[in-house]
Amino acid sequence: METLYFQRPASASQVQPSLVGYVGSGDLEVMIEPSRGEFAEIHIQTSTAGSEVRWQQIIDQITPVIPLPAMRMDIHDFAATPGVIRLRIEQALEQAMSLGGSHHE
């Protein structure tokens, strides 16, 4: 397992806890917790060695489209494709920024 960390400036949006996917799904789990800081912190545990550039590109594609809130995002990746990664992150952010938050698989 490789552990990656990214930090981006956060928007002022409030978020609720969110969970999308689950560890046993075989591809990807994304968890979001609100933070009081000024940053969006993204912690990734991945089974794909040497994937930092791929993750950097995916995050760089999402951030201009969806302003990241102050949060801690934990991602557990089990060799998901870039399309699945982006879909799960966008689902988790949408949930977290909507009232109530919830769980999707």
UniProtKB/TrEMBL annotation:
<feature type="modified residue" description="O-(phosphoribosyl dephospho-coenzyme A)serine">
    <location>
        <position position="25"/>
    </location>
</feature>
<dbReference type="Pfam" id="PF06857">
    <property type="entry name" value="ACP"/>
</dbReference>
<comment type="similarity">
    <text>Belongs to the MdcC family.</text>
</comment>
<keyword id="KW-0597">Phosphoprotein</keyword>
<dbReference type="InterPro" id="IPR009662">
    <property type="entry name" value="Malonate_deCO2ase_dsu"/>
</dbReference>
<dbReference type="InterPro" id="IPR023439">
    <property type="entry name" value="Mal_deCO2ase/Cit_lyase_ACP"/>
</dbReference>
<comment type="function">
    <text>Subunit of malonate decarboxylase, it is an acyl carrier protein to which acetyl and malonyl thioester residues are bound via a 2'-(5''-phosphoribosyl)-3'-dephospho-CoA prosthetic group and turn over during the catalytic mechanism.</text>
</comment>
<keyword id="KW-0963">Cytoplasm</keyword>
<protein>
    <recommendedName>
        <fullName>Malonate decarboxylase acyl carrier protein</fullName>
    </recommendedName>
</protein>
